[in-house]
Design a protein that fits this description.
Butyryl-CoA Dehydrogenase, subunit A, domain 2, Butyryl-CoA Dehydrogenase, subunit A, domain 3, three-stranded antiparallel β-sheet, 7 helices, elongated
């Protein structure tokens, strides 16, 4: 999204055109906008100059939910995260006061490069999911008897559990490192450490959930067990916020 591609025709299309004391916003946002239709206000990213490249023309606006012209779609059904709410936002000539522009025109990319909190929060929640899948499988492996012994005593199962613990701890340390860095250098945290922690924690959560399904054997594929829910919830992390590929490609610009 923020890669410095010179072609102005590429990327986000939502526009904000200044008319006197207001910007007029037009466009459609993903059907996955978190809390769309529930929240009282939204931070909307729009382009204030469609002739400039994306990274130079993005601006952030604070938009109240009751502004005329803003419409919300129905709740999007997802494979997991059942307790959350996501929907589309349609902006049809939405007037936003000029004072609701955050920072200056074209500064969205610059501002977001100083805000690692979203990625760190997501990474932390995925460490929690990775831990839950690990503990669930560990507990099951201690109780389930096969060939006369708890399955944790079969090396094939024990090795999987050890790997789940190792990966979870590594993800946890990355989150702590990103959080600590955000206090010292928000830019380093936002551009490298937080996205690294988020993408790694999601991968660990997906892997642990998949391994939990395996360790639970047949029970793992029943709706009665929690393993399938862990896997569905973990998989959503792949595209939540930014995808694994986009996060990694974005980081490359800031590696030293
Ligand atoms: C739970 C959840 C909450 C969300 N909340 C919000 C929200 O609050 N607000 C909001 O605006 N959006 C939100 N989203 C949308 C989210 O930001 C997008 O789904 C995400 O950025 C991926 O974009 P896309 O779906 O258009 O995928 P696409 O861009 O179509 O990508 C499809 C595939 O192609 C790959 N790909 C695409 N472009 C490239 C490239 N240049 N190089 C390499 N690979 C590429 C991707 O990695 C992916 O694998 C949310 C999504 C989820 C799942």
């Amino acid at each position: 999204m923020f890669c410095p591609i010179p072609d102005s025709s590429i990327g986000l299309k939502t526009s904000a055109v200044r008319e006197g004391n207001v910007y007029i916003l037009n466009g459609t946002k993903s059907s996955l906008v978190t809390n769309a239709g529930i929240a009282d206000a939204y931070f909307i990213i729009a382009r204030t100059d469609l002739d400039k490249p994306l990274h130079e023309s993005l601006s952030i606006f604070y938009v109240e939910a009751n502004t005329p012209g803003i419409k919300f779609g129905k709740k999007t059904q997802m494979i997991g995260w059942k307790a959350s709410h996501h929907a589309e936002i349609v902006l049809d000539n939405v007037p936003v006061p000029v004072e609701n522009l955050i920072g200056q025109e074209g500064e969205a990319a610059k501002l977001l490069m100083l805000l690692p909190e979203v990625a760190i929060g997501l990474a932390a929640s995925y460490v929690g999911l990775a831990r839950a899948a690990y503990e669930y499988a560990l507990n099951y492996a201690k109780q389930r008897i096969s060939w006369g012994r708890p399955i944790i005593e079969h090396q094939a199962v024990a090795l999987k559990l050890a790997q789940m613990m190792i990966d979870t701890q590594a993800a946890r340390l990355m989150v702590w490192d990103a959080a600590l860095t955000s206090e010292i250098s928000p830019q380093l945290a936002a551009t490298v450490k937080a996205p690294a922690a988020k993408t790694f924690a999601v991968d660990v959560a997906i892997k642990n959930a998949q391994t939990a399904v395996e360790i639970l054997g047949g029970y793992g594929v029943t709706k009665e067990s929690l393993a399938g829910k862990f896997l569905a919830d973990a998989t959503i992390g792949y595209s939540c916020d930014f995808t694994r590929e986009i996060l990694r490609l974005g980081m490359v610009n800031f590696l030293s």
